Structure prediction request, 320 residues.
Amino acid sequence: MSAALGDHILKVVAYFDLFNYPVTKEEIHFFLHRTVKKHQLYRDLEELTLNGYLFCEREFYSLKNDPSLAEKRIRANEKARTLLTTAHKLSKFLFAFPFVRGVGISGSLSKYFADEKADIDYFIITHRNKLWISRTILHAFKKLSFITGHQHWFCMNYFVDEDALCIEEKNIFTATELVTLMPMCGTSTMESFFRANDWSDHYFPNHVTKPAMHPTVAGQYNFKRLLESIFNNRWGDRLDDYFMRLTSRRWLEKEEKNKLNIKGNRMGLKTGKHFSKPKPAFFQEKILSRYNNKLNEYQKRWEELDLQQNQCLFRKEIMK
Prediction:
């Protein structure tokens, strides 16, 4: 077995192990940090499993010898398939809102995982300099969804506009979110977004970008264009700036009060004229820290296994 390939396999399995999510050999190949032929990868996976470095239950590989993880994943995948049907329909609905130019499904659902408390997370791209008008209208609608108890269907937590397509934070967390993002609407905009973030190829050279699932049909959004014409002037620009200041101030108050969301994570929003996104320090950086700790932990374990196996081979040679 190639030691270098083993290290790359560990990086993939360790990352998803943070979320107690065992992965298939096809997924390991997709997220591998180097190009490799599948038959070589599959051979090394078999060897790693036989020698106790990895555990395989059903078709799922994990660092933990816990069969319940595979069962949990199977149930979560089934629920995700059902929820994705709803998400596809709602994506087209959200695309009809003013100044929305691209819609993608992100978060755990984009990785085909949904538990009983699953949300539908959306990544939204807006027309340049109209992000805050678009975001405000969308979130006003979301407040109405509380009436019917469907607010978990409309988690629009990451916005960029056409002037800020390149993601600022470049690390394994954001790269993973990029290559798993499901583009739903706005074909040309989503293609531009993925081109602007081709730096993710450095992390995942085996991934393939997916086209948007719901291409725009000419004449389909006439009412949307009518609404946009109302704000395409200097008054619209001023209103956009006002909504940005208002939202930024409200989120700063939440942050100063150490408020938590329903998942127990600290609430914080990083805002600018061309973006609105969760503050990296409150979730992303914690994940990266945990990931590095897990990598260090299991690299030491694998080194100990290497030593034990080498000692066994040495004893066998002596006894010959």
Remarks:
- Confidence is low (pLDDT under 50) at residues 313-317.
- The chain has two domains: 3-65+285-319, 78-282.
